[in-house]
Amino acid sequence: MNLSGCFIALPVIGGGIAGAGRDSDAVRAEAWNYPEFKEKDVQTETTQRVSNKMRTDRNNYFADFADHVHVRRNTPTRMGSFEFNFVRSGTDNGVLIQVYHDGLRIMLERIPSAFYMGELQASEVQIGGRDYLLLAANSRTSTQRMWFGIFRPDGSKLYAASLEQSVVRVIQNDDGISLFFLSGDSMRIKI
């Protein structure tokens, strides 16, 4: 039996390798249009191309902090008295970051769905005698964004933004933190 010429078009389901696909234009637009939030006393300063020699591991940016965790999707993860979860929103296509302190939910932050492909990373730092939570999530490579937030231990937000580049390293300073991007650029956030 000759079956040449008997082709049936089948729909393509999925994008191949998990995480290697391309985000839709709507998902990318949501990530790019996420509004920056800055409490009145928070200052940011960006410096371009500080170094040509940067780490290329964009998956462990809190490595220099003693307290940090990687939070996989739908997997509650503890760091001291805090518990973090990273789940899809049940009401829209966004992502919810849930933070609990001693069993009580202190934070529910919705971020664009582009940041759901990776994992959430969290760290606890002390700057100027005060404690802060740092949270970050990368998007797919095709979207080229990173969501980054700074929160007080009660869950109140100091800073949150969808950054234009992926962060490869975060360093604590006396008055804030510095973010180092894959491109070699850096950004300082003073609290």
Q: How many separate structural domains?
A: 1
**Morphology call:** globular
Task: Give the strand tally.
Answer: 14
Q: Biggest sheet, in brief? A: 6 strands, antiparallel
Distance between the termini: 75 Å
**Which range best describes the helical content: under 10%, 10-25%, 25-40%, 40-55%, 55-70% or over 70%?**
under 10%
Q: How are the strands of the biggest sheet laid out side by side?
A: 1-11-10-9-8-3
Query: Which stretches of 5+ consecutive residues score pLDDT under 50?
Result: 6-19
Provide the gyration radius in Å.
Answer: 19 Å
**DSSP helical segment count:** 1
**What is the string of SSEs from the N terminus onward?**
HEEEEEEEEEEEEEE
Mean pLDDT metric: 81
Percentage of residues in DSSP E strands: 35-45%
Structural class: mainly beta
Report on the structure:
It is a single chain. The chain is mainly beta. The protein has one domain. Helices cover 4% and strands 44% of the residues. It has a 6-stranded antiparallel beta sheet, with no helix packed on it. The longest helix is centred in the N-terminal third of the chain and has 8 residues.
